[in-house]
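DM from R.C. (forwarded with permission)

"hey, sorry to bug you on a friday — could you get me a structure for this? deadline for the figure draft is monday and I only need the backbone to look sensible"
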Amino acid sequence: MKYFNLVLVSILLCCSNALAQSTGVIERGPYAKRPDVVAFLQRVSANHDIPYSELQGVLAQGKKLDRVIELMNKPAEGKPWHKYRKIFVTKERINKGVEFWQRHQPILDQAEAVYGVPPEIIVSIIGVETYYGTRMGTFPVLDTLMTLGFDYPKRSAFFLRELEQYLLLMRTEDLDAFELVGSYAGAMGMGQFISSSYQRYAVDFDGDGVRDLWNSYDDGIGSVGNYFAAHGWQSGAPVVDKATVKGNAFKKLDADKLKPKYKHAQLKAQGLKVLGAVTENEPLSFHILEGEKASEYWVGHHNFYVITRYNHSEKYAMAVYQLAQEILKAKNAIKE
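My reply, with the result:
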């Protein structure tokens, strides 16, 4: 297997050392000597019965990526909603979404039949994440996860878990740990799955025996559908509705929490009017977004919460939903 080709690893180590001696600069290697890395390797080796030397041979090739840390410290979600929206809901991205849908109509229909997730949502996710599979990232995943796991303290625990899953993924999928590239957060493929999500939700939707989220559009589409289904997507149910407010009582509500917790009667009692169909007993969430000229008020249903399981941001979920609606509208207009 590629992952455990110790001969290759030895050659890489020798070449790396030779380069360091000739140039006086060591770009790779220091991670393997750090006590925190050694402790991580020992734990992974013991938990998964993998020889320590094999794991060490892989992580010895990792290098710190300062650019990754810079990008993590200024995510797009920090922008106000009206600026964030303009990144994703554009005429060009809508048109490209229609083209993507037309090109992959059969597999999108199949994914909807299997998972109950409408094509426009799957198309929108892939459109937001990777511009329909054309921008899947340029950062080496191994280096990214090591950088964030060992040199980004505020989220170190999360990324060390993802690094562990990445090392396991290399074994289960027979992938090359050194070749894979992704986002600055270590997400991979057209749907930008982190390692643990790849393990749990990626599917072989084209039936070729491989779960390939880089080269198989069928696998990419099916995997997004499976992710949503696994997180409880309700077929045919609403996602989010606009609302208006009267008075100031709404300020008492716990706005912008992702998990729905309010009943309709509770929202009405605080001066909210939902501009959409709402059942009395379903849990709802309340959101205030920064519009260009005034605040926007929204009420989220269960499916809105499901979108936030993909990215824990109300702005992200809203952008995905609104792009999906625009793509659907544009595609339907072609039929008329």
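R.C.: lifesaver. The domain at 6-60+137-187 is CATH 1.10.8.350 (Helicase, Ruva Protein; domain 3).
me: no worries. The mean pLDDT is 90.
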